[in-house]
Amino acid sequence: METTSGLKGHTAMLRVYFTDAIQYWEHKRVLYNLILAIIVLVYFVAGLPVSKLSLSLETALWIFILAVLANVAYCAAYIADVFAQMSAFRDRWRDHRAILFVVGLIFAGVLTRFWAIGIFEAGNR
Q: Is 104 within 8 Å of 77 (Cβ atoms)?
């Protein structure tokens, strides 16, 4: 049976893992959102003047929803990060977790590209 101090020790370690994850991932969220916004803007500008026909309140609401969902998806990195930090591979993981950021950013960028094409080509129809 675990003692109170043992439970406090586990809680303290979880706090360390979560704090480390927040410190690592939150400042990268700005870059993540900036790159996704640039992708949307590039496809909007590339589709001008036809892409202007897609502008509406509904389009703005869809883009808002997709931006929120992209940030919810970004939070999946926390699960992987904390799980890996709790393993025996913590130090190795912390040295290489940028790979997860890059792969996630590429994946999000590809999805963003497809959505941007779909939204701004809707003005062609």
A: yes
